[in-house]
């Protein structure tokens, strides 16, 4: 039987790392016992999509922003690799791809012939989803494989607002 591929999208959010940990705990066995190859993909936004800069110094500003985006990307994939090491997962490939996360994830599914795509949910409300777009919703509708959207459980009320837990 050919090795199956799981692509998981990670960004710097806790939601994405929760999705990675949840998936590792439930689907991927440690060491070499797993029938899956894991591909961790981080979509790095191009500097020009973050800010619009024109005039003198624009190239410098974009260069500095790109360096910062590279640092974030490297830190993000390193954290993802560390989580895999903690779970004793060895069969991992990591990719940093510049572009919109929705397209990057769907392209990764095609590139690696993935059986499943795993993404975390930020639990945005309707307004934020309309403004920012939902990567998980886009992938669920456009990826050519099964898509697992991992939602982080809500925090208990006493963790959300410590004032409420102190009332008598």
Any overview of this molecule?
By secondary structure, the protein is α/β, with parallel strands linked by helices. It has one domain (4-159): HUPs (Rossmann fold, 3-Layer(aba) Sandwich). The protein is built from 7 helices and 5 strands, in the order E-H-E-H-H-E-H-E-H-H-E-H. The protein has helices at 14-27, 47-50, 58-86, 101-112, 126-132, 135-142, 157-160; strands spanning 4-9, 36-44, 92-98, 116-121, 146-151. Strands 3-2-1-4-5 form a 5-stranded parallel sheet, with helices on both faces. Strand 1, helix 1 and strand 2 (36-44) form a beta-alpha-beta unit. Helix 1 (14-27) runs parallel beside helix 3 (58-86) and helix 4 (101-112) runs parallel beside helix 6 (135-142). The longest helix is centred in the middle third of the chain and has 29 residues, at 58-86. The relative contact order is 0.20. The model is unreliable at 126-132 and 162-168 (pLDDT under 50).
N-to-C series of helices and strands: EHEHHEHEHHEH
Question: Which stretches are poorly predicted, pLDDT < 50 over at least 5 residues?
Answer: 126-132, 162-168
Give the overall average pLDDT: 81
Total helical segments: 7
Question: Based on CA inertia axes, which overall geometry fits?
Answer: globular
Work out the radius of gyration: 18 Å
CATH topology: Rossmann fold
Q: What profile does the largest beta sheet have? A: 5 strands, parallel
CATH class: Alpha Beta
CATH architecture: 3-Layer(aba) Sandwich
Strand content: 15-25%
Decide which structural class fits the backbone. Answer: alpha/beta
Helix content: 40-55%
Order of strands across the main sheet = 3-2-1-4-5
User: In whole angstroms, how far apart are the ends?
Assistant: 61 Å
What is the number of beta strands? 5
How many structural domains can be distinguished in the coordinates? 1
